[in-house]
Amino acid sequence: MVDRIADPWGPRTPYGPGQRWPVRVDSFLADGHTEADVQRWVPTASILHSNGDAMDIAVIDDRIVGVRGRAGDRINHGRVDPKDLYGWQANHSPDRLRRPLVREGDRLVETDWDTAMGRIVARSKELLDGPGGWGHFGFYTSGQLFLEEYYTLGVIGKAGLGTPHMDGNTRLCTATAAAAMKASFGTDGQPGSYTDVDHCDAIALWGHNVAETQTVLWMRMLDRRRGPNPPAMLAVDPRATPVAREADVHLALRNGTNMALLNGLLRELIHRGWYDEEYVRAHTLGFDELCRVVADYPVAKVAEICDLPARQIEQAAELLGHSERLLSTVLQGFYQSNQATAAACQVNNLHLIRGMIGRPGAGLYQMNGQPTAQNNRECGADGDLPGLRNWENEEHVAELARLWNVEVDTIPHWAPPTHAMQIFRYAEQGSIKLLWISATNPAVSLPDLVRIRRILAQPELFVVVQDLFLTETAELADVVLPAATWGEKTGTFTSVDRTVHISEKAVEPPGEARADLDIFLDYARRMDFRDADGNPLITWTGPEEVFEAWKECSRGRPCDYTAITYERLRSGGIQWPCTEEHPDGTERLYPDGVFNTDPDYCESYGHDLATGAELLPDEYRAKEPGGRAFLHAAPYQPSPEVPSEEYPLLLTTGRTVYHFHTRTKTGRATQLVHAAPESWVELNPADAGPLGVGEGDLVRIESPRGVVRARARICGVRPGVVFLPFHYGYWDAADGAAPGQGRHDRAANELTITAWDPVSKQPIFKVAAVRVVKEADSGGRPAPAPTVGGSAPLDGAGIPATVGGPAAEAPSRGE
Amino acid sequence: MHLAHYLGLLHKAQERLGDAFTEVGEAHREEPDVFHTCEKLAAQCRGHAGKLAPFARRYAEEAPTEPDRLHSQLFSGTRTGGLGLLRDLQDLYLMAAECDICWAVVGQAAYGARDSELLTVVKACEQETAMQLKWLRTRMKQAAPQALVVAQ
Known about the structure:
- The structure holds two protein chains of two kinds.
- By secondary structure, chain A is of the alpha/beta class.
- Helices cover 28% and strands 17% of the residues of chain A.
- Chain B has helices at residues 3-27, 32-60, 81-112, 116-150.
- The chains are: A alpha/beta, B mainly alpha.
């Protein structure tokens, strides 16, 4: 038995390069149940992080009693993340929404489905009546719905209403991954496979605290590190995360300077001849321009911009330059920071110039932050067209029009799909009048929350919220629809390395709660959307029918699902593209160095990285990419907000291993709540000392936008930087503050800045200027921060370790 | 030799465009991307003007008096709201277009004057001006349907 709160990663199973990662089956059954008691095991995968770990739900008497990792699945080989071990218990939470709610004055009151849907449909029809009616609708969805739900919503929005105002909170987590891959390789789609960990000789983690965000991937990396011939490891992160502590070289750079670092590293690699000239010549475009731009970033200059020792930068370049099979992973430290797309493209460049793409061990993960983010990108419920199509390519749009049998110009292809922050801006200005939010919580997760609450509370904005609980966002809604969740509905979703899993319904949802798919289908029926021949636009009745329709939409595109079936998925995950020619799926993209950059095939004609200006189709064609990848170059530019005398510190936000998002689920699972019950703020002793702040003291963190109060953890975060976890909102705040009332001083996003990357439009959460003021003494109590992960206290601090005790004990069975 | 007049025209046009980017950005702070990008592009325009200054001085000695109606007035203050944003961006677009064509003209003259230093400056700056035009077009295309058809 392992206490997976005290040890989130569980026991090591070391292995060597080229060997198979050993199986270790993790499980957790509640209430003293054993596997022998379980009546049914129902296949699914994780919905509480983006790794895609496959597991089975244990069911006794039509009730979920636990989970067990799937030994045979290609992603996790039986392992389960602690959030998944315990998080399912939230399904049984007594405060699940059971009936629809509608607003009556300042109150939400229970009602039936007919009344709730009736109000939405009445308002929709009223808004749609008249020129430009489409423009009054906005949809803000999630990274937690299923493929079938995104695709259905995509068709409703793009072919039914004809609105470009659709995005997901995937904009906050994964938009830069997609933008960087489109820019470099021509389309979205992760080149690598998780099996690259088995083969690599070096791992570089770019702003990616994988130990806490994708624990099972970290277990794989740690098992290689403990086996023979371990890979070298480089970590780029301003915090002393478990990854940084494990790494051979840790670059704790100043927030917002990723671009300078990467330019410097690329210059070193080129300067020292550590690149593959032949690969560059045959498979890339733009090398001369890249050389010209990075030439301006000698190590000494980079050391100054990033505030790093020059020797460390050289060591990092040596680690990268000496590798033969380099695996890179990139996440929020890049995606939510300054010059996000440009910096993520430089990691692509690193792999392209070294010819390290498309072969075992030479892998690249432009990660996703959320479990089903990939599907939102593929299916077009966010700022992309379905099937990774190019909105500027008339033939791509015509394909969709034929598939859906609608007029081409019904599909909003005249400008790029509207990104999330712009959707909220249109709502603020009053031109979007109906905002439908599904499975996400912008009242806690978007930047500058004072503003977001104000927008959602505008009386003329009709807000629909579809969720499991009365979230901070739902409290501000006009109609609240109770949704079924993971384990209560069927659908599929796809991991970072393109592995598609099925997640089947194990039990009935509580009360009158409905599957998100059923809600969208009901809306389509009531709206009576018609195709060009006057027949119903949407005729599907269940998830498998939608999946089959989606397969047609994906045909011939990079994310081709045509040879995948529900039946096949029941025996394990399959990687797309999966076609008749490649019925077992495709482990790695671009093995032959031929990229998706053909003008007729690519997903984008490209952008200027500095401004986001769109380049013209003819310009793109004139480059004659011919399957070559683009090496994009850009100079470093300082962040939109930098420290000042008034606000001398830099705020960064992030996660703990014990929680996901705004804790809608993980905040309702006892073991996870006990491990990280309350927010905290991390300070370096060098900053805390002069402020008179010690461990556990209550401090006020102030930015030009708001104030947050939290108790201080003195730890290894970079001097000059303070860290706040972004998980904590108001539904369980100690003073009971709900939106619109009480204090709003708990959520990290009270402080963050409204600004975004010019290309990916991903908000910048990692760079805001703040000041810290001490409010009260600790009274000897340490901060409520876990001692595990990035918030680990300094050695010898004498703070009691985070443990889960008997309630968290879970079997972990080796081979 | 009249090159100095065109250098003066371009120099002033770049300065005015820089000021207009700043003004428009400030006036539309509620559109953070417009604000931040305008700030960057304003600095870029001032950089262009700075690079032109030594050439303007170099050729000034050989220049006759400045002709009438050399400079054009394309910007007379910002507006508010969605439609106002569109109009302000359009002003910037026309001003950047003036700079764009001036770079082409000055570039031709630089060939004629066998001035390779000036040519290097023109080649670097005209690309940035072209990108400014593309950004303005991109942002206006994005804003136009909502501002002109949807908003009341």
